[in-house]
Amino acid sequence: MTDLNAAFALTSPEDCARLYADWAASYDAGFAAGLDYRLPAHVAAAFLSHGGRGPVLDIGAGTGLLAGELRKMGFAGDMDAVDLSPHMLDAARAKGLYRQLWQADITQSLSLDGPYAGLVSSGTFTHGHVGPAALAQLETQAAPGALIALSINQGVYRSMGFDAALAQRPGVTLLEVPIYGPAAAEKDPAHAAQRGLIALWRHGGAAG
Ligand SMILES: C[S@@+](CC[C@H](N)C(=O)[O-])C[C@H]1O[C@@H](n2cnc3c(N)ncnc32)[C@H](O)[C@@H]1O
Q: How many angstroms separate the alpha carbon of residue 19 from the centre of ligand 1?
């Protein structure tokens, strides 16, 4: 079974694609349900409570957990997904939540269906995954005034330079949330207490 230590130790997009090819089939029932993975719900709630609207691009969408939470919370707008892993996108596609699904490396130049009124992401800006250099690239997909709501693992917030990258963007709001629920304490004590920071801002203005 894929574990978080392997995911956090990734060093290249090729390794990342290989890991998620193996993980896609068990990601929801094994990892997310087993550890009571709450980050997608926290990001969805933050996005909606700050006035988020569609169309939305879900960045590093994986199996579509964040889109599922947005729908459960009543969001009716269009949602597109972008992810490096075709296997994760296949799992997401099967849920029928997304209008379009793009297989792409978000650290490279992107040609998607933007501009989007909302950019959302959970679990993609973390150990062994994507750093702040991708933010400018992603903002090319945001409409003026688009609401951006991204989770960043607290453990990489300074070490990967998210603090400096976000300081260059006016009006960023940071919310601290638990990534996992109580079930994680027994199943994966090494990671159970990890926290996420949800960064919210308006592309070109304040998050309000
Ligand atoms: C921990 S999973 C999170 C998936 C989903 N957002 C969730 O919260 O369950 C991280 C996702 O980021 C994707 N990812 C990692 N690096 C990426 C990159 N450079 N470009 C696009 N997606 C990437 C992985 O394929 C994986 O699906």
A: 11
Q: Is the CB of 173 under 6 A from ligand 1?
A: no
Q: Is 88 in the pocket of ligand 1 (CB under 6 A)?
A: yes
Q: In CATH, which of 3.30.450.20, 1.10.730.10, 3.40.50.720, 3.40.50.150 is domain 4-202?
A: 3.40.50.150
Domain boundaries along the sequence of the chain: 4-202
Cα 37 to middle of ligand 1, angstroms: 14
CA atoms within 13 A on the CB side of 176: 6
Does the pLDDT at position 208 exceed 70? no
Q: What is the pTM of this model?
A: 0.95
Instruction: Give tens-digit pLDDT for 77-108.
Output: 999 999 999 999 999 999 999 999 999 999 99
Provide the token pair at 9.
Answer: 């130790």
Give the separation between CA 28 and CA 10, rounded to whole angstroms.
20
Computed on alpha carbons and rounded to an integer, the radius of gyration of the chain in Å comes to 16
